Amino acid sequence: MNRGVRSLIFTSMGHFSNDGNFLLFPVLITYYSLIPGISLILLGAVAIIYNALSGLLSTPIGRLADRTDRDGLLLAAGIAINGSSVGVFAIPFLNHSIAVPSIIAGSVLLGLGQSFYHPIGATIITESYEKKTATRMLGINGSFGSLGRAVLPTIIVAVMILAGDTDGLLLIMLYLIIFSIIIYAGLMNFKRNSGKPKKREEQTNTVNRSIVKKYSRFLYILTAVIFVRSMFLTGTITFIPTFLTNVYHSRTEAVAIVSISFLTAIFGQPFFGSLTSKFGGRKIISFTTIISGIAFASFIYFSSNLILSAISFALFAFVTYSGFPVLLGYVNQVVPREISTTSNGLVWGVGQTFGGAVGIAVMDGFKVFVSLGDALTLMLLFALAAIILLPLIPRNNRLPKPDVLSGELQ
Questions:
Q1: Cβ neighbours of residue 301 closer than 8 Å, sequence gap 6 or more
Q2: Angle formed by the axes of helices 251-279 and 131-163, nearest 10°
Q3: Quick one: which H or E segment has residue 107?
Q4: Average pLDDT of the residues of the chain
């Protein structure tokens, strides 16, 4: 099988599994909140744990992948750890007395598992295709992540209804473990830059640190902007299923709205991946950031109207969950491949994921003083802040050029 096709197939399986599991805890919040002694504020604090861990660990995992060239093994390991987290999340339904430590332990495993896919999956794609083609392939790959986000929450609820809360989650765990084995079998022989002579590890590390330093201004500014944007995005989406359940008094209806809305991102990912390839990441990041703020404001304003709120949230999901090809496509348009996974880990892990954890913490703080709906409205302040920060991202003519690296890329 062609190297590019193989990479796309098995990383897409990983993206489907990883991102489908991303919404596991927001769905479980609606169940856990019914357990005596467990408050929504406590569950929000637990959500901070897995987002913070995922964000903080993505960069070290990226460095490990850059050093070891074992991308297939690491990606599969991340999916397997995701699966183990689902098994631990089933424990509270068996024994309410250990619900809190079980939920925290599951959150730790989920955070660890979620730290692997995005930096590594993006690198496998960009190593398998030319830069121009890679951004479009990231969009296609990302659409499978969106498909996972769209269908797995509904599948999780359906399986828990049919098989029971505990057995349903154990079935989801089994599916993730099986997928991790298949992914490893498909990517176990993947190597970067196949056919090129290898440098000594210490020489590679020295060169990579030098390259990172040259691109540090771009990476840190982009990470800061994405950090603030993700405070808004993740801080809100974590509580949307609960918010919709409160508004429409139906968990099934709430999950259906979220799932249908996420279907739009299946088409949004390749669409915005193509736009990023054509117009550059800076413009598309700016566009999606502005539209996401407007769409979410509309969603809150029309929340009492089922049709208008669903349309607004669908638009929000369409532009918001295009981050994989837009952010990492942009990074890989700019930085050399030698530091691609490290850079991916920084922008996605610290900016997108850890920023989201801080956003959840802020949401938790807001909910102490105001209603959930008012807290979601207040989060629009961070959408506005992200829009204000967009001009700080360096323009193309101010970015480092590979030819200034004095042979470091040779």
A1: 312
A2: 170
A3: helix 99-114
A4: 84
Cα separation, 407 vs 410, in Å, equals 5
Give the residue among 1, 12, 14, 24 at the shortest CA–CA distance from 270: 12
Residue at token pair 């974590």: 238
Distances (CA, A) of 380 to 40, 103, 213, 231, 312: 21, 29, 34, 10, 15
Give pLDDT, residue 184: 95
- Rounded to whole angstroms, the Cα distance separating 225 from 234 reads 14
Please report, for residues 10, 22, 72, 176, the alpha-carbon distance to residue 180 in angstroms, rounded to integers and kept in the order given.
Answer: 10, 16, 10, 6
Tokens found for residue 20: 């489908």
Model confidence, pTM? 0.77
Residue 410 has pLDDT above 50, yes or no: no
Q: 348-389 pLDDT, tens per residue? A: 888 888 898 899 889 888 988 899 889 999 999 999 999 999
* E-state strands within 75-224: none
- Helix, coil or strand: residue 249: coil
Tell me the C-alpha distance between 181 and 346, whole Å: 27
Q: What is the pLDDT of residue 104?
A: 93
DSSP assignment string, 306-367? HHHHHHHHHHHHHHHTTHIIIIIHHHHHHS-GGGHHHHHIIIIIIIIIIHHHHHHHHHHHHH
What is the pLDDT at residue 409?
A: 37
In this prediction, residue 309 carries a pLDDT of 87
| Cα distance between residue 91 and residue 32, in whole Å | 11
Task: Say if CB 103 and CB 89 are below 8 A apart.
Answer: yes
Structure tokens at 5: 């096709």
Characterise 406 by phi-psi region: left (phi > 0), alpha (psi -120 to 50), beta (else): left
The closest alpha carbon to 173, from 282, 276, 88, 285, belongs to: 88
**pLDDT for res 209:** 63
The C-alpha atoms of residue 190 and residue 6 are separated, in whole angstroms, by 9
DSSP letter string over 205-233? HHHHHHHHHHTHHHHHHHHHHHHHHHHHH
pLDDT tens-digit series, residues 202-243: 445 554 566 667 777 888 899 999 999 999 998 888 788 888
